[in-house]
């Protein structure tokens, strides 16, 4: 895996510069909470889920099942309403 073609036509490289300009390392709050004190960056990296954000279109490609499996694609959606999209209800405490 060194690059892939985004739906916008851009080629997104998954290797090269370190740190990678379009790569994000995701970690769930539950996994994050298992870490305490001083954290080993390499260990945290290995537990993270890789995400690439297309620099041209903003599409997100997330490798939920690891880098050896196909990623899931998430498309950006413009939201005009300042309080969030319709259908989202703020939940009080
Ligand atoms: Zn794109």
List how many beta strands DSSP finds: 6
Q: Distance N terminus to C terminus? A: 45 Å
Whole-number mean pLDDT? 88
Q: What percent of the residues sit in helical stretches (DSSP H or I)?
A: 10-25%
Strand content: 15-25%
| Bound small molecules, deduplicated | zinc ion
Question: What topology, given as strand order, has the largest sheet?
Answer: 3-4-5-6
What's the alpha carbon Rg, rounded to whole Å? Answer: 16 Å
Domain module count:
1
How would you characterize the largest beta sheet? Answer: 4 strands, antiparallel
The number of distinct helices, counting runs of at least 4 residues, comes to 2
Structural class: alpha+beta
Uncertain runs are none
Q: Summarize the helix and strand pattern as letters.
A: EEEHHEEE
The shape, in one word, is: flat
Question: What would your notes on this structure say?
Answer:
The chain has 93 residues and is an alpha+beta fold. The protein has one domain (3-74). The protein is 13% helix and 23% strand. The strands form two sheets. Strands 3-4-5-6 form a four-stranded antiparallel beta sheet. It has a two-stranded antiparallel ribbon with strand order 1-2. The mean pLDDT is 88.
Tags for this model:
4-stranded antiparallel beta sheet; two-stranded antiparallel ribbon; 2 helices; alpha+beta; binds zinc ion
Write the layout of secondary structure elements.
Elements: E1 3-5, E2 11-13, E3 23-26, H1 29-33, H2 41-47, E4 49-53, E5 60-62, E6 72-74
Antiparallel strand pairs: 1-2, 3-4, 4-5, 5-6
This protein binds zinc ion.
Zinc ion (ZN) binds at residues 6, 8, 10, 54, 56-57, 59.
């Amino acid at each position: 895996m060194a690059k892939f073609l985004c739906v916008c036509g851009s080629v997104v490289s998954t290797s090269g510069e370190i740190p990678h300009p379009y790569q994000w390392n995701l970690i769930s709050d539950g996994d994050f909470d298992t870490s305490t004190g001083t954290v080993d960056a390499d260990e945290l990296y290995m537990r993270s889920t890789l995400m690439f954000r297309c620099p041209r279109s903003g599409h997100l490609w997330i490798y939920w099942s690891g880098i050896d499996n196909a990623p899931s694609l998430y498309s950006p959606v413009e939201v005009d309403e300042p309080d969030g999209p319709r259908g989202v209800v703020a939940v009080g405490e």
